[in-house]
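F.,

This is the one I mentioned.
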């Protein structure tokens, strides 16, 4: 199933995107959370309470010291809706394996090489999260990173494309095989603001603009 996520920890942005009907959930990272809170776990607990149908992707921040303890604390906030994001580094992969073995849903983020998909499937990850725009700019990374990840996938591990900066990258990620995209609110709004569709809507609206008929 194709999904769209909001890449934000801001409550008002999440509310707005949810009201637009666009998103299945939201993704966070330490940088996004640092912009809105000094207490990431409390903040995410509040967001889970406000938006009771949305999925949450939480990356441990280090704000509480031990990353593994923070990860389990985040998981316990809502095991049905929480996925833990771990870096696709040796230490992050080792932690992801322990969390997955303990029953948590985990994703490897900064998946900037197709080898990450192989590792993710081997340790039982829910998803991998590549950085699309960064891949285009970084000569060490394949430009069509999402496609490379999809080509080595053999199971059900999802590809959630992040670092998506415009509508073109949004569409290209799906063309290359992404199962989901997570993007800032301005990008999601740009995706739905098609000029031709807006012109058609305005024309249809004008047809009965002067009518005030009672409903039957």
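My design for it:
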């Amino acid at each position: 199933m194709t999904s769209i996520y909001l890449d934000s920890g801001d409550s008002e942005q999440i509310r707005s995107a949810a009201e637009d009907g666009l998103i299945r959930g939201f993704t966070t990272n330490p940088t996004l959370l640092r912009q809105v809170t000094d207490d990431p776990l409390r903040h995410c607990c509040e967001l889970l309470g406000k938006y009771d149908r949305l999925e949450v992707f939480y990356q441990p921040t280090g704000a509480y010291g031990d990353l593994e303890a923070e990860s389990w604390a985040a998981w316990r906030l809502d095991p049905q809706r929480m996925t833990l994001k771990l870096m696709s580094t040796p230490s992050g992969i080792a932690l992801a394996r322990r969390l997955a073995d303990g029953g948590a849903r985990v994703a490897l983020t900064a998946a900037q090489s197709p080898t990450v998909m192989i590792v993710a499937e081997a340790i039982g990850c829910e998803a991998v999260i590549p950085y699309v725009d960064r891949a285009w700019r970084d000569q060490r990374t394949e430009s069509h990173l999402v496609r490379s990840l999809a080509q080595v996938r053999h199971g059900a591990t999802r590809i959630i494309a992040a670092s998506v900066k415009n509508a073109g990258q949004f569409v290209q990620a799906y063309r290359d095989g992404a199962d989901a995209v997570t993007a800032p609110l301005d990008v999601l709004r740009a995706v739905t603001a098609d000029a031709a569709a807006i012109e058609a809507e305005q024309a249809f609206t004008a047809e009965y603009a002067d009518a005030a008929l009672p409903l039957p």
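The chain is about 45% helix and 15% strand.

Talk soon.
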